[in-house]
Amino acid sequence: MFYWFMKYLVAGPLFKTLFRPWVIGQDNIPKTGGAILASNHLSVIDSVFLPLYLDRRISFLAKSEYFTGKGLKGWATRTFMKATGQLPIDRSGGKASEASLNTGLRILGGGDLLGIYPEGTRSPDGKMYRGRTGVARMVLEAGVPIIPIAMVDTEKMMPIGTTLPRLRRIGIIIGEPLDFSRFEGMEGDRFILRSITDELMYEMQRLSKQEYVDVYATSVKEKAPTLSR
């Protein structure tokens, strides 16, 4: 109820009026059934604008730290995350990664939409980075289509390190669903998982027209920590 209240009566009307996003490809979202929406990730604002233009609810997997903050800021962040349909996950690896996968599979198994950022983190500089193969494993285990999405200019609206968005237009491009059913039962093959992930990243890069860098974004942030703020 809170999600729909924020979407249709509070955040939705306000953001659409102020920022006037343009959207291409809304018809590519299936009317029913589970599907993964895989997007590039330029700004924290990405998880706000995409749900505004979908008739169906979408859930995102977000790092658990967003839900455990203290004081007024912690409450505001937690409320924001819940209002935009985000679910806490532990990204520390090992059993935590397996739990995250199971959370995603549970959402897809219920016939719902799941939002994922294959790069694993926000781009530190507006470029597109190498995708993590967890998204490919989820596609094969759930047996659902995956839809590439490009967020456009959101990093200019709300750059890393800022707390309030700037007044400017942004765009959302929703590509055609990708079908990887030909690889059914091969989720244990790391070469297949990498192939699927690379094909997905190619489609996302084609839509967004970002420069592609074949390294993980996290490695770039580790070398220059100020880029992750």
Task: Assign a percent range to the helix content.
Answer: 40-55%
Q: Evaluate the radius of gyration.
A: 17 Å
Class by SSE composition: alpha/beta
CATH hierarchy class name: Alpha Beta
The count of strands amounts to 9
Q: How many domains make up the 3D coordinates?
A: 1
Task: Describe what this molecule looks like in 3D.
The strands form 2 sheets. A 7-stranded mixed beta sheet has the order 1-8-7-2-5-3-4, sandwiched between helices. The protein has 8 helices and 9 strands. It has one domain: Glycerol-3-phosphate (1)-acyltransferase (3-Layer(aba) Sandwich). By secondary structure, it is α/β, with parallel strands linked by helices. It starts with a helix and ends in a 6-residue tail after the last helix. The protein is globular, with a radius of gyration of 17 Å. The chain has helices at about 1-20, 45-50, 70-85, 95-110, 135-140, 155, 190-210, 215-225, and strands spanning about 20-25, 35-40, 60-65, 85-90, 115, 130, 145-150, 170-175, 210-215. Pfam families: Acyltransferase.
